[in-house]
Amino acid sequence: MSARLIDGKALAAQVRAGLAQRVAALAARGVRPGLAVLLVGDDPASAVYVRNKIKACEETGIRSFFAHLPASTTQAELLARVRALNDDAAVHGILVQLPLPAHLDAQQVVDAIAFEKDVDGLHPTNAGLTLAGRPHFRSCTPYGVMTMLDSIGCALAGKHAVVIGRSNMVGKPMAMLLLAADATVTICHSRTRDLAAITRQADVLIAAAGKRNLVTADMVKPGAVVIDVGTNRTPDGRLTGDVDFAAVREVAGAISPVPGGVGPMTIAMLLANTVEAAERSAGLAPMPGASQPRA
Ligand code: NAP
């Protein structure tokens, strides 16, 4: 039987409609959420991602501040830009589009963003708060995945969740959010032995390796929930995920497609974090550290 489709595009539209209401409530208090986006260089894929994020801001009533800096931008110039945005009260969220040109130190740039404005959730303070089980800004892609799981009523407590990938942006924060939801979590990576033996145990399988067709039908437990984070290009230029969608769909209980799955949700959660940052600045949401650690 064919798996239930988890439609990220439709869910993202719902999330954004909810955000538009919160933006209207902020407007009534004279606050307009602002997201600053810095793009350095001429990577065509990054330009498309940035364009989509700015368009999504506009559609949700969020003000965007966009700066496209030349590939020759120095580390000092980029850090100065970030610091100026940190001090700009109209800017509630700052996003530096990654990857940066090779001569720039991305980690140092991310570290320079005020963690209260780090709506991508990549600053070490935000990563640490997520690790501590009291996230301030959840990293956008894992946050999107959690929202997708929630949307299908996937109760995670006691389930075995397997995450393929251990990057700071996706795999690690994904595992932490699943753990905080009481799943039993296994993290796999390129050195994992017998990946299939582990993925076959997964009630929830998150593929975030960036390897086309890495997850085949024989690697999936019947009825499992499969979320495909990967984005890859086929030789003819089509966007595809890490999961052999057509075959896995016949085994899984629920599955997200690529495109139209995690991608739109990542943008929706970036907007959600920006609105939350604006609400915090207006005193409408708790400030960092206000939540209690889990027992
Ligand atoms: P990344 O930094 O390249 O990390 C990839 C991870 O996958 C690494 O931990 C790597 O292991 C692991 N891996 C690679 N090949 C593997 C294999 N054959 N078996 C098991 N593990 C393997 O990438 P990322 O930033 O986490 O992104 C992952 C994918 O998600 C990419 O395709 C990216 O484009 C996509 N993505 C999509 C969105 C979206 O909004 N849709 C957002 C972010 C990322 P090692 O650590 O051992 O190298």
Structure report:
This protein has 295 residues and is of the alpha/beta class. It folds into 2 domains: 29-117, Rossmann fold, CATH 3.40.50; 140-263, 3-Layer(aba) Sandwich (Rossmann fold), CATH 3.40.50. The protein has helices spanning 8-27, 44-60, 75-86, 106-112, 124-131, 140-151, 171-180, 195-199, 245-248, 262-281, and strands at residues 4-5, 34-40, 63-69, 93-96, 160-164, 184-188, 204-207, 225-228, 232-233, 239-240, 254-255. A 6-stranded parallel sheet has the order 1-11-8-7-5-6. Helix 2 packs across helix 10, helix 6 (140-151) packs across helix 7 and helix 6 (140-151) packs across helix 10 (262-281). The longest helix is centred in the first third of the chain and has 20 residues, at 8-27. It is globular and about 50 Å long. Mean pLDDT is 96; it is low at 290-295. NADP nicotinamide-adenine-dinucleotide phosphate binds next to helix 10.
Feature tags:
Rossmann fold, binds NADP nicotinamide-adenine-dinucleotide phosphate, 15% strand, six-stranded parallel sheet
Write the layout of secondary structure elements.
Elements: E1 4-5, H1 8-27, E2 34-40, H2 44-60, E3 63-69, H3 75-86, E4 93-96, H4 106-112, H5 124-131, H6 140-151, E5 160-164, H7 171-180, E6 184-188, H8 195-199, E7 204-207, E8 225-228, E9 232-233, E10 239-240, H9 245-248, E11 254-255, H10 262-281
Parallel strand pairs: 1-11, 2-3, 2-4, 5-6, 5-7, 7-8, 8-11
Antiparallel strand pairs: 9-10
Helix pairs in contact: 1-10, 2-10, 6-7, 6-10
Bound molecules: NADP nicotinamide-adenine-dinucleotide phosphate (NAP).
NADP nicotinamide-adenine-dinucleotide phosphate (NAP) is lined by residues 141, 164-167, 169-171, 188-192, 195, 208-211, 214, 229-232, 262-263, 266.
